[in-house]
Amino acid sequence: MSATPFDRVILGDIVLPDGVLEGGYVAIRGETIAAIGQGAVPPAAAITDHSGKWVLPGLVDGHMHTGSAIGWPGIEGASSSAAAGGVTTCVDMPYDVPRATTDASIFREKVEWVNRLSHVDMALYGTIKKENGVDAIAGLAEAGCCSFKLSTYEYDATRFPRIDNTTMVEAFREIAKTGRMVGIHNEDQEIVEGAIAAAKATGRTDPIMHARTRPPLCETMADLAIFEMALETGAHVHIAHSSLARGFELAEIFRRMGAHTSGEACIQYLCMTEEDLVRLEGFGKCNPPFRTAAEVERMWGALQAGSIAYVSTDHAPWQREKKVYHGDIFACGAGLTGMQSYAPLMASLLIERGLPITLMASLCAERPARFHGLDGKKGAIRVGYDADLCVLERGDFTFDEADIKDRPDARWSPYHGRAMKARVAATWLRGTQIWDGAEVLAKPGTGRFVPRQHTNIFCG
């Protein structure tokens, strides 16, 4: 170890994917981690004592929508809540208002907004137009997109289109050449539209019908189609949000056949059920919907078996008025806030089930960074990586939506009032504290765009 003092040493119980260094330290020089250890504290210009608290790698949320509600200005508030939630790197979806990120020019414009507004670092997905969009894929990769996102379901023909199977295969072939993952919104349009029409015809527009009109079959039918295309094209094809353990089983089956296939679990599918949809009404509406309590248990089985790629939030901070139920659940916006609750909720779920906190370091930081090609820089407490840290204080807390650090109409949460076993006491981004447990210390523009670091495919 160099005799030169480090810039800062942070003390605490250091959480790594394979164990916890109790009474350990992370030493920082500049913006990066320079040493990790236990025992005697090395010399440093400053020492920050988080003793007795868990010090995890800064979380990497592999799935969020900062611009789907109010466009790119939404980056500012969403990234502020990320800082307060221990998330130091966001991987943002491309379905922005009023236009999606479908070519290198739009992508570079979005990067400028990130560098101007974000409180945390941010990687970006790219996507394609419904027609004549495949030729833009290479340019998006060259501009630094970490992954691509396509959909089998159409929410908007311009902003969030369904890509037909012929175009999907063409796109997969081109994406395979870039070494990027392609995440898929996985719902079968015909099944869903038919079920919604039937429900409306009988006057059933109450909250539970959101789940009934998006049955498990609508997911698995889409999964099978995209995975067959993965096998055909060699692309790394990823379920962007599986609410079903069956999705991860299918990914494993296709991997055994030689395909690059994987899937992520959004955190709501590890804790929310159809009963919560009825209770929360529009504030519990997301796609895919919450499933049964039995399915939640199957999801935990898949997690413990190592079948899940990583855990994300699918954070979508719709304006409060778009979530209020007025008798028609189909009229409410689909999507949940989850950024600021992500770390305390994941830690609480693991504690409640008697599972090790090390799973959080893996599933919420290291693995999403690897899937999106950000490893080597993000996602781990490792020498040479950015000094991004999430500090958790253990105890009994209650999540209060009023504390969300976002614009006023985004201060709502499906987890409001939930008992938590941890809270985010501090967040560090590249060696600088950006959250002190009460206030966001970062300013807009503190965060930076993070391009993909390499083209190695990782789907294991």
Topology overview:
Blueprint: E1 8-16, E2 19-29, E3 32-38, E4 47-57, E5 59-64, H1 74-84, E6 87-92, H2 104-117, E7 121-126, H3 137-143, E8 147-151, H4 165-178, E9 181-185, H5 189-201, H6 208-212, H7 216-233, E10 236-239, H8 245-256, E11 260-263, E12 265-266, H9 274-280, H10 293-304, E13 311-312, H11 320-323, H12 342-352, H13 358-371, E14 389-398, E15 419-429, E16 432-435
Put the structure in a nutshell:
The chain has 460 residues and is an alpha/beta fold.
Write out key terms for the chains shown.
seven-stranded mixed sheet, 460 residues, seven-stranded parallel sheet, single chain, alpha/beta, 31% helix, globular, 22% strand
Could you characterize the architecture of this molecule?
The structure is a single chain. Helix content is 31%, strand content 22%. The protein is globular, with a radius of gyration of 21 Å. It contains 13 helices and 16 strands. By secondary structure, the chain is of the alpha/beta class. The protein has a seven-stranded mixed beta sheet with strand order 3-2-1-4-14-15-16, with helices on both faces. The model has no long low-confidence stretch (mean pLDDT 97). A hairpin with a 2-residue loop joins β15 (419-429) and β16 (432-435). The longest helix is centred in the middle third of the chain and has 18 residues, at 216-233.
